[in-house]
Amino acid sequence: MRTAACIAAVLFLLGAGIHATQAQEASAVAASPSAASRGQYVFNLAGCTSCHTDEKNKGPLLAGGVPLKTPFGTFYGPNITPDPTYGIGAWSEADFVRALREGRGRDGAHLFPVFPFTSFTRMTDEDAKDLWAYLRTVPAVPTPNKPHDVGFPFNVRLGQMVWKWIFFSPGRFRPDPAKSAEVNRGAYIVQALSHCGECHTQRNLLGGVDTAKALAGNTRGPDKDAVPNITPDPDTGIGKWSDADLTDLLKDGMTPEGDFVGGSMAEVVRNTTGKLSGADARAVIAYLRSLPPIRNKVEEKKSP
Q: Residue 290, class by beta-carbon neighbours within 10 Å (0-12 exposed, 13-18 middle, 19+ buried)?
């Protein structure tokens, strides 16, 4: 009787253990859609579609091939679908987070700073992992990556180690305790997720941003277009814009004059700022209002 009772107890405990394991697995599966859902919002704010989807030629989502003309040559956005051969399907979450934090590929090679790891390094752990969870849900596309059309010495990846030593400061975003939660949220979106400074800040001859003129405009932006000053300077920036003006720009791409933005900014509105929640749009505006005004007139190209 005692032996039978022991066997029964063992079987009960084994059954309970199996049930607990199944419950944990079910819980993990249930959590995944939530992480992926949050990750989709991070994905939108990070502007991944604009750089990794050839929308002009109706290419598949995130299959790469988008050209980005720079003073150093033309770079092509890579395939970041879960395809194991041409995409990031063979990557681990740790590989992906390292790319965001350190600007290194799965093989440890230095990534070119046309990939904005200089901003993504500030991303929170949760957002980085949620973004990874979402990317795992998109369809895998076996599209080979286009080689960059960049001349020597800018095509040497080892040279990026020197560039990073000079211009790259890794580290997570740190809220300013003197600022409100709303302003800090806006700062996080502008500085980290949406990496606005990568285009709206002037770069030097080596491609490093001029931090003294952060967000004050760029004469050599994407595709060699001028990018405007978005500091609160009243004459050369957005100091005279109302909150409604800024909301219209972020949501619909409409300027106070009734015109609509074009070029790469139109893509940003369509894929990124137009998908900001109301609270996050207000946070971005609050942060931009809090910046020191920098007088810097950026002449825009006029279409012939």
A: middle
Following DSSP, what letter does each residue of 251-300 receive, concatenated? HH-B-TTS-B--HHHHHHHHHTGGG--HHHHHHHHHHHHHSPP-----PP
Residues 110/164, Cβ–Cβ less than 8 Å = yes
Q: Do residues 226 and 296 lie in contact, with contact meaning Cβ atoms separated by under 8 Å? A: no
Encode pLDDT of 143-158 as tens digits.
999 999 998 888 888 8
Is the whole model's pTM more than 0.85, yes or no? yes
For residue 70, the SS3 value is strand
Strand order across the beta sheet in which 67-70 lies: 67-70, 73-76, 149-150
> Could you report the per-residue pLDDT of 96-155, keeping only the tens digit for each?
999 999 999 999 999 999 999 999 999 999 999 999 999 999 999 999 999 999 988 888
The answer to whether residues 184 and 176 touch, using CB atoms and an 8 Å cutoff, is: yes
Strand pairing class (73-76; 67-70): antiparallel
b/e burial code for range 204-239 (CB count within 10 A of at least 16 → b): eeebbbeeebbbbbbeebbeebebbbbbbbeebbbe
CB 224 within 8 A of CB 210: no
Q: How wide is the angle at C-alpha 165 spanned by C-alphas 160 and 170, nearest 5°?
A: 100
**∠ CA 135-138-142, rounded to 5°:** 105
- The answer to whether the Cα torsion of 156, 159, 163, 168 is positive or negative is positive
Euclidean distance between the first and the last CA atom of the chain, given in angstroms as a whole number: 97
DSSP, residue by residue, 161-194? HHHHHHH---------TTS-HHHHHHHHIIIIIS
H or E stretch covering 158: none
**Largest CA-CA distance found in the chain, in angstroms, rounded:** 97
Backbone angles phi, psi at 64, to 5 degrees: 80, -170
